[in-house]
Amino acid sequence: SGVDEWASALLHFPGGIVAEVSCSISLDQDNVLRILGTKGRIEVPDFWFAGGNRDVGPGRIEVIRSGAARETISLGETRHLYSFEVDAAAEAILAGRQEFAWPGMSWADSLGTLRVLDKWRAAVGLEYEIEKPAKRVTTLSGRPLRTDGETIAKRAIPGLPKPVSLLALGFEDFRSFSSGSILLDAFFEAGGNLFDTGFVYGAGYTETLLGQWLKNRGVREQSVIIAKGAHSPLCYPDVIGKQLAQSLDRLQTDHVDIYFMHRDNPDVPVGDFVDAMDAEARAGRI
Predict the structure, then answer these.
(1) Does the pTM exceed 0.70?
(2) CA distances from 254 to 122, 211, 225, 257 (A)
(3) What homologous superfamily is domain 154-282 in, according to CATH?
(4) Stretch 184-200: mean pLDDT, rounded?
């Protein structure tokens, strides 16, 4: 992909703050942290090292103000940067905490960084082979998917030949198969088998993701799919069959177990919608 050789991005934060970040193994960069403000800038050379790069001497912070002399703050710290992280982790464990105290990174900080990296990768279209559905045939731990979970109870619904979990998993905000499959696996192994999808969710991507997962894990027959269509402004009887056909193609199945109209249209007689859905039920697609 080339992404490991050189990558650069602009990050936009609230308040009009913009950060430029880059990393590389094939390009020799200056490795300087620069913070620019209205009255000058702050520079931290070799900021990977708490006490400075061993090859160039002690660490320092340069404060450069407009129209003023440069101020250098020297850091005589001799410990390696990672030793601070080890100490912070030890202090947290001894205090019974599960995350660092400020100014250490919190869980929210770490998750925020991961989300930014996900967006960065999505922006450049980077997906490793191991992350693709064809390769991700096991759970995150590397074992086959368990199908005997009972944490989430199941009940019978008249008209359905298989039990249905009391909890449904919605699908509006799934971003990738590699991340989505982790939640799908956990939900299914806990006993969940009811999946709530919609034609408009993710412009169709979430239905595609669910279809990939069902085929990949081989659990379509144990799963119950709720499909929805005819969302405003396309809430008309003749839209139901057309959208359902696309949904079935994305889901890689010939039928859905339950179908809802996503919206209602009071300008159209109810009977017209009933006839449209009845036609799909008679055709075996619902």
Answers:
(1) no
(2) 31, 11, 11, 10
(3) NADP-dependent oxidoreductase domain (3.20.20.100)
(4) 95
